[in-house]
């Protein structure tokens, strides 16, 4: 494994990155409150952390919080196109963090950076997509003995880790931060909804009003995206495989169609399903001239890019995050951000205010795992409800919002059964 302490694009970008981090931190009061306590109590003192996350200004705020708690953090990118080079430079230069991330890095570099993040034998692993966990279990199994636990930020990663747990392969406990209410109900819905629309608009500068916008998948991310697209005046079509989610989308007022029918009428397509091959060759073949295709799921496998290239072999880049694929009959399909996370590869990701909740959950999850030691089984665990509620209370306090408190009689009523009607 590598012993280098950083691999970033350009150290001279550090001042610009610091400005960006400071701007993000102004909208993250919950994480600031946790950082203040961490600085005082030092609950992570001496703990080696390997973090594979999107290297953005919001992530920098999380890393700075962990370091305030005493952690020795090594950071790499969880997506080759999501790194903000100025933020990476600032973390390395101003905060002394071992950062291994470059915007646009190729596949070998990406995996070299994963290995570099693991090179100090971490005691805790923070993942966004489970790439570090996968690497530990497939290529560096000896590291598993030193790892006390981990956290996972995204739906795709939780799915991977649960599969590992079912197979009996998972070597250490992992907190599914993605499943925490303060994370998925806000980050996935409001964050993904806004940032995905932002990425699509930055990449295309297209008008969404009046367009047919196809949302593939109606989980929390899909719900948020559909709502924001409808708010922009688009006619939203939802595709689903889950009957309950399809029914919910119908009751929410959207047209629900199989992807084979939606492919022929859509103007803009965005996958948020967390599965592979959501849009494949048959669907690309049905698309009208000028169709725009994007992905907001964690992995680019949601789009069958090989099938697209075979169907439309003529390709050219006409905008920074927009590639034109031309079919032999002249019909064009426009792919955004090379099929990777459009909200991060073509924009800046989620707003800091919503990442404040997600990364507060992350920070508390790290503290919880370390405090639990080896008591947790090697499985995927929920973040304790009390910690989730603590994050929500801190956010409400920062917003100046007050809520009611149950009386003793109300608590007794909810806890009992003898009162009847």
From TrEMBL:
It comes from Nannocystis exedens. The gene is ahcY. SUPFAM superfamilies: Formate/glycerate dehydrogenase catalytic domain-like, NAD(P)-binding Rossmann-fold domains. One of its GO terms (biological process) is S-adenosylmethionine cycle. Belongs to the adenosylhomocysteinase family. One of its GO terms (cellular component) is cytosol. May play a key role in the regulation of the intracellular concentration of adenosylhomocysteine. Its EC number is 3.13.2.1. Substrate binds at residues 56, 128, 153, 183, 187. This is Adenosylhomocysteinase.
């Amino acid at each position: 494994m590598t012993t280098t302490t950083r691999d970033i694009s350009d150290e001279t970008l550090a001042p610009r990155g610091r400005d960006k981090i400071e701007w993000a931190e102004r909208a993250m009061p919950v994480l600031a409150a946790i950082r203040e306590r961490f600085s005082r109590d030092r609950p992570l003192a001496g703990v080696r952390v390997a973090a594979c996350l999107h290297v953005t200004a919001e992530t920098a705020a999380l890393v700075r919080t962990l370091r305030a708690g005493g952690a020795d953090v090594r950071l790499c990118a969880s997506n080759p196109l999501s790194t903000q080079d100025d933020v990476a430079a600032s973390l390395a230069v101003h905060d002394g963090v071992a950062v291994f991330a470059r915007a646009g890095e190729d596949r070998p570099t990406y995996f070299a950076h994963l290995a570099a993040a693991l090179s100090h034998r971490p005691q805790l692993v923070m993942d966004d997509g489970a790439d570090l966990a996968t690497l530990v279990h497939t290529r560096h199994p000896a590291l598993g003995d030193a790892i006390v636990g981990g956290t996972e930020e995204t739906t795709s990663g939780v799915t991977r880790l649960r599969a590992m747990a079912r197979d009996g392969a998972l070597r250490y406990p992992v907190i599914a931060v993605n499943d925490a209410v303060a994370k998925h109900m806000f980050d996935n819905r409001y964050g993904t909804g806004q940032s995905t629309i932002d990425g699509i608009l930055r990449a295309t500068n297209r008008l969404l009003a009046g367009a047919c916008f196809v949302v593939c998948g109606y989980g929390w991310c899909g719900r948020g995206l559909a709502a924001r697209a409808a708010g922009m005046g688009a006619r939203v079509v939802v595709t689903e495989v889950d009957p309950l989610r399809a029914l919910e989308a119908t009751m929410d007022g959207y047209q629900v169609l199989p992807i084979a029918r939606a492919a022929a009428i859509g103007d803009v397509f965005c996958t948020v399903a967390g599965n592979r091959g959501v849009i494949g060759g048959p669907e690309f073949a049905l698309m009208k001239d000028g169709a725009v295709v994007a992905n907001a799921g964690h992995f680019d496998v949601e789009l069958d890019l090989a099938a697209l290239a075979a169907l439309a072999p003529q390709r050219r880049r006409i905008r920074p995050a927009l590639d034109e694929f031309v079919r032999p009959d002249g019909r064009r399909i426009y792919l955004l951000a090379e099929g990777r996370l459009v909200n991060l590869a073509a924009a800046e990701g989620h707003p800091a205010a919503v990442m404040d909740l997600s990364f507060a959950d992350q920070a508390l999850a790290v503290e919880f795992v370390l405090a639990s030691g080896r008591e947790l089984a090697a499985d995927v665990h929920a973040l304790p409800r009390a910690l989730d509620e603590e994050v929500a209370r801190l956010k409400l306090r920062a917003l100046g919002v007050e809520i009611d408190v149950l009386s003793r009689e109300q608590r007794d009523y909810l806890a009992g059964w003898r009162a009847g009607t």
